[in-house]
Amino acid sequence: MSTLNSTHHQSPFFLLSGIPGLEASHIWISIPLSIMYVTAILGNSIIIHIVHKTPSLHEPQYVFLSLLATTDISMSASTLPTVLKVFIFNHREIEFHGCLAQMFFIHTFSSMESAMLLAMAFDRFMAIRNPLHYTTVLTPSRITQMGLAAMARGVALMMPLPILLQQLPFCRNFVLSYLFCLHPDVMKLACGSIHVNVIYGLVLVLCSFGVDSIFIILSYALILKMVLGIASREGCLKVLNTCVSHILTVFIFYIPLIALDLIHRIGRYHSPLPHITLSNIFLFLTLVLNPLVYSVKTKQIRSALDRLFKCKTR
Known about the structure:
Shape: globular
Strand order of the largest sheet: 1-2
Membrane topology: Multi-pass membrane protein
Family: Belongs to the G-protein coupled receptor 1 family.
Helix content: over 70%
Subcellular location: Cell membrane; Membrane
Distance between the termini: 71 Å
InterPro entries: GPCR_Rhodpsn (IPR000276), GPCR_Rhodpsn_7TM (IPR017452), Olfact_rcpt (IPR000725), OR51/52/56-like (IPR050402)
Number of domains: 1
Largest sheet: 2 strands, antiparallel
CATH topology: Rhopdopsin 7-helix transmembrane proteins
Number of strands: 2
Main location: membrane
Order of helices and strands: HEHHEHHHHHHHHHH
């Protein structure tokens, strides 16, 4: 009886989903996915390396960029095992606690990425508002404190998620919608009341991504106000150009995130493809594009990359 009750209240495993209708092509799909993972990890690792090794890049803007790259690598590592396992080996099972652990790390690193984007918006605001005292305000110790605060917030907010899910009975279909575990997806498989989970999930969105996005918008509203006060058109464009990379990164992160959350909360689709497509964009394309955006749009990063590869070819 106790064994039966334990099975009723806690699923021994979940089944991950690939791309419906393309199961026969999973091995071929794994090739571009593997390339994306390699690109994301290698690209972000190069960003971290050149910021660390180049003294001229030891400025708050680039230190925050290296922290963002570190978060992206951690996010890649969180999803890589299950994604490649499904596509290459067609192994869809994931143990219950392993699923909860993956879910915790994915959501924690997402929260940290959002916090890093907010810190980078504050960095741009300070650099434009008071460039002479910019580095005295954002000192290395303060940047470290901001990074630790982002980590602490992510862990504190996401820790209740697996704890709440462990209290739920899972006695129906155990098939997940994605290649990895996300809280809304796992939560919907429970056969008990999920009101607490739904409410807490909404609180998480508002307290992390909601608050961060509001302050990012506020930062850029203040930046725009300061820029419009610059007399010359060339001066306006030069100042705005320093924000382009960060603005693009914010859009790359938040647009798929908002769309995915809306689909989970209000979307009703007969096809799972919208969920799968947006989740893949959010967790794959974002990690690949971030280092590419900064490499292409930031002159200092491009120059450091040129010097790095010239040294490698000698």
